[in-house]
Automatic annotation (TrEMBL), chain A:
Keywords: Molybdenum cofactor biosynthesis. The lineage of its organism: Bacteria, Pseudomonadati, Pseudomonadota, Alphaproteobacteria, Sphingomonadales. This is Molybdopterin synthase catalytic subunit. It comes from the Bacteria. Pathway: Cofactor biosynthesis; molybdopterin biosynthesis. It holds the Pfam family MoaE. Its EC number is 2.8.1.12. Heterotetramer of 2 MoaD subunits and 2 MoaE subunits. Also stable as homodimer. The enzyme changes between these two forms during catalysis.
Length: 148, 84
């Protein structure tokens, strides 16, 4: 089971991992990835727009695909939307499994697909009011295609 | 009638986040829809000028240029996604 959540507010990685592991003694590996707003070129803020009617369903579909490929993996994915400041967390992927290989692989898959198959768009904003939409990267498409 | 939704710079260039339109009967695919939409205003034309930078979802499922649009209730048009 891999759960998906979409929210504007922050998340607590330690609490997410603790919730996943609670009451389990069969898990030997827990992996966690947090994506953060990086202040490239003096960036002041990053706004994440999304497609309200589709985003959560798409995140759930990505989670379901990971659960199908790695049946022994437990996990959760959380993606934020709205205006975020440098240093703030954007996305959290938490996985756990009996052995580390599956937990690492599922976490990487979840991030690669979140980047390329979930309807979010990032808009960068600088202190002087300049804004710019982030361009999709071919390297992200290539990373996602590895799992095809 | 079909609800068209626009996101990110597609929304900004067209100038609205949604519009409801009656599709002409000869508009049967995503590619034909984009051609038809591009003729509606200079903003539409600018937003849709480079089709390689346009992605489409028909009834909340990612589509390709040849995806049928007949009977669709909601069609979203947006740039390649950049989340994560």
């Amino acid at each position: 089971m891999i759960a998906a959540r979409l929210q504007s507010g922050p998340f607590d990685p330690a609490a997410e991992q603790a919730a996943l592991l609670a009451g389990r003694t069969d898990l030997g590996a827990a992996v966690q990835f947090t994506g953060l707003v990086r202040a490239d070129d003096g960036l002041a803020a990053l706004t994440l727009e999304h497609y309200p009617g589709m985003t959560l369903a798409q995140m759930q579909a990505i989670a379901a695909e990971a659960a199908k490929r790695w049946p022994g993996v437990l996990g959760s994915i959380i993606h934020r939307h709205g205006r975020l400041l440098p240093g703030e967390p954007i996305v959290l992927v938490t996985t756990a499994s009996p052995h580390r290989g599956d937990a690492f692989a599922a976490a990487q898959f979840l991030m690669d697909w979140l980047k390329t198959k979930a309807p979010f768009w990032k808009k960068e904003e600088w202190a002087n009011g300049t804004t710019r939409w982030v361009e999709a990267k071919a390297s992200d498409d290539a990373a996602a295609d590895r799992w095809a | 009638m079909v609800e068209l939704l626009y996101f990110a710079w597609v929304r900004e260039q067209i100038g609205v986040d949604a519009e409801t339109v009656a599709l002409p009967a000869n508009i049967t695919s995503v590619a034909a829809l984009l051609d038809w939409l591009a003729s509606r205003s200079p903003g539409h034309a600018a937003a849709l000028a480079n089709r390689s930078r346009i992605r489409v979802a028909v009834d909340q499922a990612f589509a390709t240029p040849d995806t049928p649009v007949a009977g669709a209730r909601e069609i979203a048009i947006f740039p390649p996604v950049t989340g994560g």
